[in-house]
Write a structure and sequence with these properties.
mainly alpha, Rhomboid-like fold, 3-stranded antiparallel sheet, 3 strands, globular
Amino acid sequence: MFVPLSDENPLRHIRWPVVTIGLIALNVAIYGLELTSQGQVLASSFAIVPSELYQVQVFGGNAGGIFDRLPVPEWLTLLSYMFLHGDLLHLGANMLFLWVFGDNVEDALGHGRFIVFYLICGVAGALLHAFMLPLSKLPLIGASGAVAGVIGAYVLLHPHVRVWVLAFRFIPLRITAGLALGAWIATQLVMVYLQSCGDSLQLGKCVWRAVGPSPMPDGLGDGVAWWAHIGGLMAGAVLVMVMRRPGVMLLDRPPPAA
């Protein structure tokens, strides 16, 4: 619904968001490697596959799945998957959100804690995705879970900051981060509902299908891992409350204009 362009939120504690820049550079570099034949081999092995993760109980080694070209331990894919992307649009969308909102979350947490925060959010997204779709044999890749964590943190830190967005991809608007990111969050919840309950007329059955593990072998009707987004989002909202710098306020308001 909204494509972020920039925010009006200066850094307060750090001079440069070196971790945010580094993460973007790393994702871009790995995507460049994916475009090669050797990179395709790596991508197929380092993606996370929920059914394989369950098969080895996370820490039981490599499941030897049909996509594996290398014997990568399944636990390692909880980290590696978030640095892989399917195409340029997938990469660009994730990196745009990270660029616009990641610097201020890094500012609020500090460089070291932001690295830990980002990785935990990505892992949380993968784990919720796997829990909800335990039979899925489809590989999961992308930074969306980790970036969703950044979004969850930013909403709690700076909901009143003004951001420039493209509404419906071509209408420029200057609105609050709470509105823009709140719409993004609402979209994730609606899509989970539609994906899980869109064909169900029984409320009880629908609620269970929305919050319970899917019995389907893939569970990705539209090819988007919505549960990974929600897992990362929830992790980011919780972590920012305990990992932020002393004195950093939640629901912060920007200083009045001079």
